[in-house]
Write a structure and sequence with these properties.
With 155 residues, the protein is of the alpha/beta class. It has helices at residues 12-21, 37-47, 63-73, 88-97, 109-120, 128-146, and strands spanning 3-8, 28-34, 51-55, 78-83, 101-104, 125-126. The chain is 47% helix and 19% strand. A 6-stranded parallel β-sheet has the order 2-1-3-4-5-6, sandwiched between helices. The mean pLDDT is 86.
Length: 155
């Protein structure tokens, strides 16, 4: 059974490039495209998409509201956000908004296929350049909430 994917990016060349990566035997089926954030949720529902590849700078709405709208309209759909460059603050915010992953647009096709498969299975995925920064941000937040400012020993 194929993973149904919707590509949401305003650059037709990018959408066409992503579509060209996946053949009929890849296990990934491109079921739709959107070039505006206002259309993404409706197209996701209409196409029955399992995963949405969402450009973080799609016109219409900010990506955080777009993620929430997709997840509200079709809760089982996973959102994988594409970014031009690593930004740990935005990565943390897209995960907080409900995205399952944050990757860079320079991802190679094999890793993109793996990312789609992983988020479809319920995994959360961060671009390696963002992972350390996001973990540091969440660790600092957790320490702040717990009232700790320094190192906590686990022994």
């Amino acid at each position: 059974m194929s993973i149904k994917v919707l590509i949401a990016d305003d650059a037709i060349l990018f959408r066409e490039g992503v579509k060209s990566f996946f053949g009929t035997d890849s296990g990934i089926l491109i079921v739709g495209e959107a070039d505006d954030a206002l259309d993404v949720a409706a197209q996701t529902v209409a196409a029955g998409a399992d995963v949405v590849l969402l450009d973080e700078d799609l016109p219409g709405l900010d990506c955080f509201d777009t993620i929430r709208l997709i997840r509200d309209r079709r809760p089982g759909t996973q959102v994988l956000v594409f970014a031009e460059e690593a930004d740990h603050a935005r990565a943390a915010r897209v995960i907080e908004a409900g995205a399952a992953g944050y990757v860079l647009k320079d991802i190679d096709p094999q890793n993109l296929a793996r990312a789609i498969t992983d988020v479809h299975k319920g995994c959360t995925l961060l671009n390696p350049r963002s992972t350390r920064d996001v973990f540091e941000q969440f660790t600092a937040l957790a320490r702040e909430r717990a009232g700790h400012n320094g190192f906590t020993s686990w022994t």
